[in-house]
Fold these 4 entries.
Entry 1:
Amino acid sequence: MNEMPTLSEPNATPGSAVKTAPQAADQPAGRAPTLLEQLQKPMSIAVIVLAVLLAAQSWSSSKQIRNLREEVAKRLQKGDVSNAETGVLARTVQEGAKELEIKVGALENRQSETQSQQLALEQLYNDLSKNRDEWALTEIEQVLSTASQQLQLAGNVPGALIALQNADRSLSRSDKPQFITIRRAIGRDMEKLKALPSVDSTGVALRLDAVIAQVDSLPMLSDETPALPAAPEKPGKAKAVRDASGKLVGPPAPEPLLQKVRDGFNTWSGDMWADVRQLIRIRRVDTPEALMLSPTQSYFLRENVKLRLLNARMALLSRNETAFRNDLIAAQDALAKYFDTRAKSTQTAQALLRQVQGSNLTIEMPTLSDSLTAVRNYKAKS
């Protein structure tokens, strides 16, 4: 290091300062140190500290450089592995892309075939849609015509309502405003059918079936058997009785032999008279021929009554009021003429037939002419 110039006196010259330095060295040790000597010690300490700091900085820098090199080497190694994996993945992606290209080509071929088929189907649909409305109206006309015939012949009101509802539902699927007139006519016919009074045909038919099932078990006048008389009470053993005071009194003394004979004769004569009375019975019968029926004639009579009731049931379903009334009257006359009207079963059958006869079948059925006319007018215009 260069030595620093010493401080001289204020009026000293540079030459004199140089001269004084050796003189200061030659001074004795007991003399007080000069300013230069005082400044040299901190400078040396600072140099040492600076050297230590430089050495620490150099060691730290070398360590960081070594760590950085290791980190760079690790990252380079990882980069090589990633590059290898990326290459494998790239090859896999290329193979998948090739497969996708093949599949896309097949799909394009199928799409072209599908488009051609779709065009053919659209052409066919267009051809069919031209006549679709005409076919639907023809079907509706046929259904309404059948329902009208059933309504007039058999009075099938529920069937006619179902036919009208199906026709209205078929027309509702189309958005053509031309069908509004037809649907309005169908609605009017539906209101007419709903306003009709209800006839319990099922209940009347069930009552007729109940009477038909009872015909075979109804008693007839020709097969009536006389009722057996009540059996007389047989004398039993004498029992102890109580007297007026409430005390038990023993059985009476045995009757004499003559009394026993008299009682036996009275019992025998009573039985004989009861049997004789059963041989002859007097009864008023308005139709004597009813008592003279043979078993075969009785069988055919029962079958005839059942046939009359079956015919009345058929007339009920076909709404034939005249035939229904005539068959019921004939069956009631047969029951009153040939069957025992005193029996409970006969009375029950007659009551059921009277209930059936009171049913009103004379209901004028409306026609479905409004709906049929609207459909036919639309078909004629188109």
Entry 2:
Amino acid sequence: MGILKEFKEFAVKGNVIDLAVGVVIGGAFGKIVTSLVEDIITPAILTPALKAANLQNLSELVVPGTAIKYGNFLSAAISFIIVAFALFIMIKGINRLKRKEEPKPAAPTGPTQEQLLAEIRDLLRKQQ
């Protein structure tokens, strides 16, 4: 029973749950970014180039006489840049919120440590 208890403690730790939520949200976010890249940005940027090359799809871009599909590479590179930029913007916003949340140290309302020590010293002198 000890191993089940340890597993339960591990599985319900905040870090594990946060990680699971992050993975699920990351998967959904990946689908959104993939759609943005493949359905909006790639056609908008590469449509003139594809028309000039008489191609319908980016994956048709190949080096003549080889199996090198540089069109797929371009699509993956554009996708990576967009994902990296989106994460950069998101993390920048989160960091900005974290900085604002940090409370300023409150002014001490009671006596300082030095004042308390001085009072203790004075009391000890009176007792002697």
Entry 3:
Amino acid sequence: MSISTKPYKNSDSSKKEQVSKMFDNISKNYDNLNRVISFGIDIKWRKKILKMVSIKKPKNILDIATGTGDLAILLSQSSAEKIIGLDISEGMLEVGRQKINQKVLSDKIEMKLGDSENIPFEDNTFDCITVAFGIRNFENLEKGLAEILRVLKPNGLFVILETSVPEKFPFKQGYNFYTKQIMPFIGKLFSKDKDAYQYLADSASIFPYGKNLNNILSKIGFIDVKHLPQTFGVATIYSASKK
């Protein structure tokens, strides 16, 4: 399954190439701009993931689409001895490495350039795998999820944090106005890449969420699939495991 929208509609390059270029372009301003656009609520959602992961007491964690490493850094508070952050944007990874060095976490967290649809690890490697605001950027969603299932250990934990669309009035209407009008406007004001935040809004609006994503995860082979809407449904946390 491919999520059809791309960052640069006038380019013939693949979605994967465009996403990598987009995040390279916005990497320097991404953290600050993300806090503004989300009103900082995303920090609360990530803390919920930390709590879910900590219960499982994993020894190693793979954080896919790690970006600048916010979730990987937070997960260092868990029992994990090793955390690997994987991303296709070297620009985002470099910002993440600087943050990790400042927090003296380089012995625990490794930032690695790699493709989520061709994960460079052996089968059954990780106790826990996380993805925060990354799976809607996969070029082929089912292929990426199948790769995640492959490298997850049996009985391991897979957690997704992703945007979703509120279904109740007036939150749905407010969300649509904010993501289609306000968010791209803020992005254009503060980012040199005017297409990036329009793409992030567009991709969020068409991505399968809730039970639809649950069904895809189950189809791929995940078990114990659950979803927990957050903040009136503007985001959702999903959890799943492997036989």
Entry 4:
Amino acid sequence: MPVFEYGDVRRLDLFSGMSDANFTALMRGAYVQNFPAHVELVSEGEPSDFLHVILSGSVDLFSEWNGRDTSMATVRPISTFILAATIKDAPYLMSARTLEKSRIALIPSQDVRAVFDIDSNFARAIVTELAQCYRSVIKAQKDLKLRTSLERLANYLLRKQKHAGGQPVFDLDFEKRRLASVLGMTPENLSRAFKGLQPYGVSVEGNRIMISNQADLERFAKPNPLIDDHSS
């Protein structure tokens, strides 16, 4: 891996507290590769040979079963995936594919585990990241199990609006078919849900969302930090 790429990886919380010697040892077998859009990087069930660090672009984590597939999460720079499989030396539980042209660092999983055993700061950072991932999964399950499809869509739009700076007009990150998958809905149900939110001030043109009555939408959605705040 080129030395000039080290800085981006080193700044991640996961690696920032490591000793210089251990970080250098970890990066010795790593390399960076450019991938075009729509390339499958890993497949669920395969051995977890590498820890991936996305430096640019975006990656879709997804799963398939019995002729059906669903998007689990979107990974953006600069972050890792899929850490749990690397630490456990277990098969990937999800597949990953690029959504756009992406630049990704690949760190051999065996090196990650070796440094985990000798660098206490690195080990604590890994435990912290895995705990954060666990909490995010619990919140996603609560969103899916406790809310109707209309409520899930309303709260998703409020979260995206917040990330877009709180403006009443903002764009979705990806196409509606993938959004339906993320929310556990069919494309047809998503279309009906958008219509169902019209009385609460939501209108949509393509991928552009307009919220004309913020208070009504929030009263309906009832956002809850114990479900919707994925930062803690």
